[in-house]
């Protein structure tokens, strides 16, 4: 009789777990479809890093314009431009520019555009809590990396239930570091200059240019 009870509990928990995982994956698929439906996306965000043991508490702001796999990012005093072939990293403080090629076949290459769809592979999905944030319903999905080599313990992805836009991303590292990216403004299909993702070397006279093939 006891064995029958344990077997029943096992099957019920397995079915529940599968249902929760499917529910989470379905919501993430909606987020991905929404992102891909826009011609371009402009985001203003806040980024914070905390590590109690190391007494680290840093906050910074940034913004990024995305169009397909093209992007123009401003973050922590650095500008990064990707024109579809090369990445241009501009550091005004050092008057230095690094130009590097990007391997389109490299699935592990992290780019700002992938930050909105990075969760499509490499994770286990769990349906988490629903929070009310200033009148907005934010549903959290817990992502647990499949690879044991991943230095992240888990990621909480907050999704606006109504818009299907990402509200925030909370990343917990195995070393105790917590990073949080919160979207302050999410605008879509904005007027974008045809030169938005074009690097103009003439604007940076006197800069040292480091070219990496």
Give the SSE map.
Elements: H1 2-37, E1 41-51, E2 56-67, E3 70-75, E4 78-82, E5 86-91, E6 96-101, E7 123-133, E8 136-145, E9 152-160, E10 166-173, E11 178-188, E12 208-212
Parallel strand pairs: 6-12
Antiparallel strand pairs: 1-2, 1-11, 2-3, 3-4, 4-5, 5-6, 7-8, 8-9, 9-10, 10-11
Describe the protein.
The protein has one helix and twelve strands. The protein is globular. It is α+β, with helices and mostly antiparallel strands and 213 residues long. The longest helix has 36 residues. The chain has a single domain, classed as Lipoprotein localisation LolA/LolB/LppX (outer membrane lipoprotein receptor (LolB), chain A), CATH 2.50.20. It has a twelve-stranded mixed sheet with strand order 7-8-9-10-11-1-2-3-4-5-6-12, with helices on one face. About 6% of the residues have low confidence.
